[in-house]
């Protein structure tokens, strides 16, 4: 089974979707999907002393502009283990440039976490929490030779839903119609 492809499309919509966690909140190991097998592989250990400020993963059956499944940060009151499916709703998007390429990261909350399910837009988040997320993505590659990242803007839930829809459509075009 390859979790990127082998999940029902009914479970992946712009309003609600299952995210696959790759990296637990607080982790320094950068795991990513091995596209061929559907398993996780260790890409690297972060070079900086920073750690992931939220659970991090991807949305199955999506295809982003960077050639990977669409990235997602899952804000949760607990650490979530890698390869866990989490039912989420989007609340916003972080837009960044990663080595001269656009890299969008959906910000989502689990629908079953009583501490976070009440958030409906990134504007609802405490400002400091959001500042930590932005800071992480501005510096997490700073000690890696030749790698540069910058956060360009953040947008709310409606833009996040538009990006998810676009990524689902790209997936259908590139993988189901190919």
Would you mind describing this structure in some detail?
The protein has 178 residues and is an alpha+beta fold. It has helices at 127-139, 157-176, and strands at residues 17-23, 29-33, 40-45, 55-59, 70-74, 85-98, 101-110, 149-156. The chain has one domain (9-176): Inorganic pyrophosphatase (Inorganic Pyrophosphatase), CATH 3.90.80. It is built from two helices and eight strands, in the order βββββββαβα. A five-stranded mixed beta barrel has the order 1-4-5-7-6. It has a two-stranded antiparallel ribbon with strand order 2-3. It is globular. The mean pLDDT is 95.
CATH architecture: Alpha-Beta Complex
Total of DSSP H or I helical runs spanning 4+ residues: 2
CATH superfamily: Inorganic pyrophosphatase
Oligomer: single chain
Number of discrete domains: 1
Number of DSSP-assigned strands: 8
Task: Give the rounded overall mean pLDDT.
Answer: 95
Biggest sheet architecture: 5 strands, mixed, barrel
Helix content: 10-25%
List the helices and strands and how they pair.
Layout: E1 17-23, E2 29-33, E3 40-45, E4 55-59, E5 70-74, E6 85-98, E7 101-110, H1 127-139, E8 149-156, H2 157-176
Parallel strand pairs: 5-7
Antiparallel strand pairs: 1-4, 1-6, 2-3, 4-5, 6-7, 6-8
Short description, anyone?
The chain has 178 residues and is α+β, with helices and mostly antiparallel strands.
